[in-house]
Automatic annotation (TrEMBL):
The keyword DNA-binding applies. This is ATP/maltotriose-dependent transcriptional regulator MalT. Gene3D superfamilies: Tetratricopeptide repeat domain, Winged helix-like DNA-binding domain superfamily/Winged helix DNA-binding domain. InterPro entries: P-loop_NTPase (IPR027417), Sig_transdc_resp-reg_C-effctor (IPR016032), TPR-like_helical_dom_sf (IPR011990), Tscrpt_reg_LuxR_C (IPR000792), WH-like_DNA-bd_sf (IPR036388). SUPFAM superfamilies: C-terminal effector domain of the bipartite response regulators, P-loop containing nucleoside triphosphate hydrolases, TPR-like. Keywords: DNA-binding, Transcription, Transcription regulation. GO terms for molecular function: DNA binding. Residues 776-841 form the HTH luxR-type domain.
Length: 841
């Protein structure tokens, strides 16, 4: 029976209770569940099992609307052994409950089992005493394996990805899962939900059509009911398991129910839209309703007044509404050009770039007035910037240059395009054109703040860059609605934070990720690059590799292949996979930088130098380091040294070129103000290398460890150990060496450990019995950092798909992690992971 997938534990509990009752030890079992979780099917299956072992079964029916049962007039005489089953006990009258109280007191020495089922949230106070006298068993939503079994059963094979996504919205409700493939699903689900809701059915429909979460005040307005009455109705719906309410906000427990109820409640949307508009609700909330109603004069007038604002924060409903309005208006209507421009902008900010370009070009062909024309040119240029095509952006703006200097907003976009192309002089010229208008146009000011912040951190004024980004964020919070500049500000902030060795860089990346996914293309590839670098620098190498894998799955890397392969090469090299590191270096060399990637070319050169050094080709490694020192790499020339200085100074010292090392250190001192912990530690490390100063190296190692750069902390300790060993201080060398090895081991940097072993062995320093422990093969300590993260999220009750979304990896990757976790821990199910995690404390 489909509804019983995943109910083995419940069936076993009931079967054991029936067997005990048959032996003369009866009892009362209270089953509780939200609607749709298979209570009735479970009771039917239990009755069949009881009959199979020779017990009589009695099904007591609760009669609507009074709730009367055969227990209402007293206790019958049942021939024992027997099982009595009562479904829908929440509807029973008080007399039935009193009879059950009396019956339960004498069941312990009878061959009689009473099994009841009721809705969990309905009038819990009525059942408190019975719950104390009974074995209470809650039916919960079925888990992932049961969901898969249900879907295989209803489809007769492997369910498609679209059905799997829809199943997530059923939240493990078996009844809903079995309806997902029905042709009339929306009608069936709505009938089920509104039948449960009873007199609150209309309220449920209004909650479904409003944007989620719906506020009680909004519900009261559109339903034309008092807020106190709505709150009481919401409480009843919550007791049925249909919605959840917190702090006056209402959400559906099952998204598929909300979707289907909304689909059958279109007739309510027109009045809801007018009510919300009259209350001054957010335009997006009104547009959500109007997108499902016929176009009329009132809708068009309202849209004309709000289109510009809607276009900057579009939802699918906004795009649909604008598109219908443009199609509805006749040629020559005065509202047509502004609405076309708003549609093009909404399509762009929704990530539908090809459609945005078609809409913009079509509108330009109609020769609109200059203000509309400028908006459309902005769409063309910004769409090119999204594709990391600054030359295309400049070309899109060229037709406006024939009219003289670009207007302020287009000049600001031109500045961003020039910067993306690495044209710093062109950037300055465009900024000069745009700057006069920034004083009275906050959007231009935001563009220029982001552009100037980029210039400052390129030249290592990190504090100044953050100050400008703070100003941009303030304007974006208060005065400006521009999704592109908000995303740009987040990405730039993450870069600066990572340069400062600030762990919050990864948090900033996560703030930006949802919108980057909407925009896709070059901005998403850039986000993955920022995240990979920050994860690497913070010692989260599995996460860095996941980011690289995610980027590699994109149709185009938009020039980011160099830094991405460079990071992967460094990780593989440190983990002992030199052939794999070589492959990534070769791929990095083949990558052609464009757009933002031109600011990361030093990462590619560094990875080539590090691999050459590991291969013993010191001459080649030094040549590559000199190219950085000579300013031959990157659009910012010698400033590239500042971001990779510690690692290239190390290569110069190891290669015996002390002059090159000193030159690099001097460049770093000239470029870096030392205002952040990251910069101070890097300068201290490099000075320690150049001067063979053990104290500086050990101090830098501790600074790196405290400020989130574990690989640098390990390297600095290793370098200190080498100098101590070379100076005849083996005991001190061994202590520093052990610190380095412990830090490498935490990163599973087996390749770095092997190279350190070989280097220190030349001085007679060995770890011996005091070396670091190997990771055990079994138990919780055997889990890698990535596996521990997955285990923790599984223990929190997340499905594999939810874990994948949280960690931004594929479901397949999470499946593999879970399989390895189970194998290492000797477990056979996810439940054991939950229990084991809790027992660990």
């Amino acid at each position: 029976m489909v509804d019983l997938f995943g109910r083995d534990e419940s069936l076993c509990l009931l079967a054991n209770a029936a067997a005990q009752a048959r032996a003369g030890r009866g009892g009362l079992i209270m089953l509780r569940a939200n609607p749709g979780l298979g209570m009735t099917a479970l009771l039917d299956a239990h009755s069949a099992t009881a009959r199979g072992i020779g017990m009589r079964t009695h099904r007591i029916v609760v009669l609507p609307p009074s709730g009367c049962t055969e227990l209402s007039t007293g206790l019958p005489e049942w021939t024992e052994p027997a099982v009595v089953v009562i479904d829908d006990l929440h509807r029973a009258d008080d007399a039935t409950l009193l009879a059950l109280h009396e019956l339960a007191e004498g069941l312990h020495d009878r061959s009689l089992l009473v099994v009841t089922g009721r809705h969990r949230g309905t009038s819990p106070a009525r059942f408190e005493r019975l719950d104390r006298m009974a074995v209470v068993h809650d039916l919960l939503p079925v888990e992932d394996d049961a969901v898969s079994a249900v879907l295989h059963d209803v489809t007769g094979g492997e369910p498609p990805e679209s059905l799997l996504r829809l199943a997530d919205e059923a939240r493990g409700n078996p009844w809903l899962l079995t309806r997902l493939t029905d042709d009339d699903r929306a009608s069936a689900v709505t009938a089920w939900a509104t039948d449960l809701a009873g007199g609150d059915g209309a309220l449920l429909r209004f909650a479904a059509i409003l944007n989620e979460p719906a506020s009680v005040d909004e519900l009261a307005a559109v339903a034309e009911r008092a807020p106190v009455d709505v709150l009481a109705g919401v409480a009843r719906l919550a007791a049925l398991g249909l919605v959840e309410e917190q702090a006056g906000l209402v959400r559906f427990r099952h998204p598929v129910v909300r979707h289907d109820v909304a689909a059958t409640s279109v007739g309510l949307r027109g009045s809801a839209a007018r009510t919300l508009a009259g209350r001054g609700a957010a335009p997006a909330a009104v547009a959500e309703q109007l997108a499902h109603t016929p176009m009329d004069a009132w809708t068009l007038a309202w849209l004309d007044a709000h289109a510009d604002r809607l276009a900057t924060q579009p939802t699918p409903a906004v795009v649909e509404l604008l598109d219908r309005a443009v199609s509805w208006l006749p040629p020559g209507n005065s509202r047509l050009h502004p609405l076309r421009a708003a549609l093009a902008e909404a399509l762009m900010w929704s990530g539908r770039i090809d459609e945005a370009l078609r809409a913009a070009n079509t509108s330009l062909a109609a020769h609109p007035d200059p203000p509309i024309r400028h908006r459309l040119r902005a769409v063309l240029a910004l769409s090119c910037i999204r594709e990391m095509d600054p030359e295309g952006a400049a070309t899109a703006l060229d037709p406006e240059r024939v009219h003289g200097a670009l207007p302020g907003r287009l000049a600001a976009i031109d500045a961003a395009a020039c910067l993306l192309a690495g044209d710093l002089e062109g950037t300055e010229r465009a900024v000069e054109v745009a700057a006069p208008e920034a004083a009275h146009d906050p959007l231009i000011e935001v563009y220029l703040l982001n552009v100037r912040a980029t210039g400052l951190f390129v030249f290592r004024n990190l504090a100044g860059a953050l100050e400008l980004l703070d100003q941009a964020d303030a304007l974006l919070d208060i005065s400006v609605s521009d999704r592109g500049q908000w995303l740009m500000s987040r990405l730039l902030r993450a870069v600066v934070q990572d340069l400062r060795q600030d762990r919050t860089a990864l948090q900033t990346v996560e703030e930006a990720r949802p919108l980057a996914r909407v925009f896709g293309a070059g901005l998403l590839a850039w986000l993955h690059t920022i995240a990979a670098l920050a994860s690497f620098n913070n010692g989260m190498w599995d996460r860095a590799l996941d980011e690289i894998d995610a980027a590699m799955s994109l149709p185009d890397l938009y020039g980011m292949g160099g830094p991405l392969h460079g990071v992967a090469s460094s990780i593989l090299l440190n983990r002992g996979d030199l052939p794999g590191a070589r492959v990534h270096v070769e791929l990095a060399e083949q990558s052609v930088s464009r757009g933002a990637a031109v600011f990361y070319e030093q990462i590619t050169v560094l990875s080539r130098a590090v691999v050459a050094d590991a291969e013993g080709d010191a001459q080649r490694a030094l040549e590559l380091v000199r190219s950085l020192a000579d300013g031959a790499v990157g659009v910012h020339h010698g400033h590239a040294v500042s971001t990779v200085g510690a690692r290239i100074v190390r290569i110069a010292v190891a290669g015996g070129d002390h002059d090159l090392a000193a030159r690099l250190l001097a460049q770093m001192r000239e470029l870096c103000a030392g205002e952040s912990a990251g910069e101070r530690n890097a300068l201290m490390y490099c000075q320690g290398l150049v001067d063979s100063d053990v104290d500086l190296l050990l101090t830098a190692a501790e600074g790196f460890a405290q400020n989130g750069s574990p690989i640098s902390a390990a390297s600095a300790a290793e370098d200190a150990a080498r100098i101590l060993a070379a100076s005849g201080r083996p005991t001190d060398a061994r202590a520093a060496y052990q610190t380095a090895i412990d830090r490498y081991a935490a990163l599973t940097a087996t390749g770095a450990i092997q190279r350190a072993d070989a280097a220190l062995r030349a001085y007679g320093v060995r770890r011996g019995a005091t070396g670091p422990r190997r990771r055990p093969k079994h138990g919780w300590d055997s889990l890698t950092a990535a596996e521990r993260r997955v285990a923790e999220l599984v223990a929190q009750g997340l499905t594999n798909r939810e874990v994948a979304e949280r960690l931004v990896v594929s479901v397949r990757t999470v499946d593999s992690h879970v399989s390895r976790i189970l194998a290492k821990l000797g477990y056979s199910s996810r439940v054991e992971i939950v229990l084991g995690f809790e027992q660990r404390g």
